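Q: How do we represent a protein-ligand complex in a form that can be generated token by token?
A: Start from the inputs.
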Amino acid sequence: MSFPTRRLRRLRISEKMRELVQQTSLSPKDFICPVFVQEDLQSRVKVQSMNEIERLPLDDVNDEVGTILDLGIPSIMLFGIPSIKDESGSSAFDDNGIVQKAISQIRQNFGDKIVIMADVCLCQFTSTGHCGILHNNKIDNDLSLDTLAKTAVSQAKAGVDTVSPSAMMDGQVSAIRKALDDEGFSDVSIMSHSAKHRSNFYAPFRDAAECAPKFGDRKTYQVPFTNPREAMMEVESDINEGVDIVMIKPALSYLDLIAETRRRFNVPVSAYSVSGEYALVKAASQLGYVNEKDITEEILYSIKRAGADMIVTYFAKSAAKFLQES
Ligand code: PBG
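Then emit the structure tokens for the protein with PBG bound:
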């Protein structure tokens, strides 16, 4: 007598059956779309290393946000490129800074139809290109906290929903939370780049945001990609400091950490599919080695499958288009 065989092909027999048993979903609602806005820019500038990504002048921001919302994407992540950089990163917390202006303009035009998130970091704003303030040639963690907190408060005044600290300074979430609460912004949420790794996948972003360190590297503050338990300690610290949403960054080479975070904690988990992940797909598809749409879809589904609730991705607009069509 032969035993019945488990035939999983029965669940794959037709398009409709496959839809019925599909275990992971992907929607434009899962996306947070990065937007780069540059001070004193006359017209859009293409980012050399990131096909189809542009830096925008302030005047173009509302148009861009309109396009993003029309595609069903609920949220943006703003990055600013200021005209003036100095040692203390002062244009980061200027109430009339480029990010602050963009936030208030978007808020005025779109009200609560959008979740406005903004990067809170200093590397675009410091002459050193480092994410913190230098003192005696070393990053001064606690001095930097003060500047990060001021930056978050100035973004809150402009009307941001969610501040997103990416500087990897120890204690940045509690410093920002305290400053926001003290200034009456207890409704502004924090999505921290909790486990942001010292990654080679950020290279194209540094071209997009002009924020490469002028000397040295970010090894003293970003998580080594060899240390998964250290990454979990970062996530745990941020939760203890009162973070609202944690982030694992990058995404594709760090799916294990997304899954681990989802298993261990109950906070919403975001994943940042970074510039290098985008550039690899774009370059390979331009050479005809892979199909861009198919590969993008598979990558984004993998990030969701690992356990991310939301994805910051440069594919947001193109993926929303093909998801709307399918
Ligand atoms: C800077 C910052 C970086 C990214 C986001 N914020 C670069 C870095 O840490 O060097 C990378 C994002 C990407 O590569 O898409 N705080």
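The longest strand covers residues 31-38. The pocket of PBG is lined by residues 119, 121, 123, 131, 166, 202, 205-206, 211, 218, 274-275 (CB under 6 Å).
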